[in-house]
Structures are given as structure tokens and as C-alpha cells.
Amino acid sequence: xxxxxxxxLIDEFAPxxxxxxxxxxxxxxxxxxxxxxxxxxxxxxxxxxxxxxxxRGCNVIISHHPVIFGAVKSITxxxxxxxxxxxxxxxxxxxLLSAHTNLDVCDGGLxxxxxxxxxxxxxxxxxxxxxxxxxxxxxxATLEEYAAFVSEKLGDPTVRYVGDGGKIVQKVAVSTGAxxxxxxxxxxxxAQGVDVLVTAxxxxxxALEAKNSGLGIIECTHHATERCAVKVxxxxxxxxxxxxxxxxxxxxxxxxxxxx
Length: 260
Prior knowledge:
2 domains; 13 strands; Udp-n-acetylmuramoylalanyl-d-glutamate--2,6- Diaminopimelate Ligase, Chain: A, domain 1; 6-stranded mixed beta sheet; single chain; alpha/beta
């Protein structure tokens, strides 16, 4: 399979035309006519991930977050992480490809996957960066209990919540990544009577508004809500016969404080 065919495969599942206006998903570096030997899947591309790709014989790295968002004014070995990544990938002739907001919003993408992981029967959403669902009546929990469940399912020991910990949770919204910045979404969920929003990067003023309005929040790290991107992509690629590996160097930059 050529890199161009790999891009087309992802595009069919998660159309690049659906990516956000600010986004830069797609091929960041590489020759579309090059054959794919093997692909390394990761949430973020760091220098360690590029080294891992070389060690594992992967000539393509597919990330969730694009390496390049804004203008790049110089590419030097000591120009910061993004610049270092580009230098190493270019020298090693490793193509850099990403599926970001297009993978967030598509059917079967990140928001659908996380909602399913968290036990929801999806009943609605905005068709984009949010899903709303119901917990099985036999599986209802308090906000504090459900926060612990989210922590376990997403592998995030730093999870925290806003609201009455004893409140019974039934109707849940999920918005992966930086959904916690979206004030319009918070207002919509409050109007819908949603019990709790699971998201990341919650702005302080929105947390206060949610608490005052009775909307619970379960806040995870950005990485924790999106690490399943590699699983979604690996299933897609393996079904198409592409050899792929999930990065062992892709790590959440946040760590929980050891209280023991």
C-alpha cells in the first residue's frame, strides 16, 4: 500500500473535509507515492516516538495530533520539540500523517469510542465534538463513583470532578480533548438537564457555572480522553492489511501525585 492509499483509507472512515477550520490533519511530511512498510500509531509525535519508529522499522507515523499547527519559521535540531521531531523524521525519511478533529467527529471515532467505553447508550449529541448517552438503569452511580469508573476505564489517575459527589448519574455527555473550553456546549448541556459531562481542559469560569447550575463535570487529562485514537486507527488499518504498531513511548505528560 502506498501512503496515498493509506490517506484515502483514513479519509473514507474519517473524512478530512470534516476537520475543524483551524486544524492541519493529513500528510505533514512524506511522499504519497512511497510504499508503507509499517506504521507506528501515537497520540503525539515526540522525538522519542520518532526514534521508536526507526527502531521498529516503521516508515510512517500516524498521530492523532498534527505535528504542525501554525507556521514553522525554521527547522533546526535545537529549535524545540516540534522542530526536533521534523529534523529526525526528515533525516530518517519517516512520513508524518495525522487524523485529528476528523477522527473526533466521525461515526465510530473518538467521541463514540469513549462514550461506549464509559457504558453509554448514545442517544444524542451535536453530530460533532459531543455525544450524549444514558447509563443502563441497573448501572447508575453517584457522581463520585462514576468519576472513579471513568478514571479506571480511561487509565487516568488524575481525574477530578465538579459537583455534588452523591448526585445520581444517569444522563452523561462526552466531549474528548479540549471540550472543556466550549462555553456554548456547557450551556446546551445545562439546558438539556444532563447530569455530568466527561471532558478535559475545563475553564475555571465554566466549572463555576456548571456547579451553580447542577451540571456535574468529570475532568480528565486531554491525553487520557484521546489515547484510544490509536486503537480506533489500528483496527481500521489491520482490517486493510497494514502492519501497524502502537507506540510504547507515547505518554501523558501529566502524572498523579503519590499520596502514599
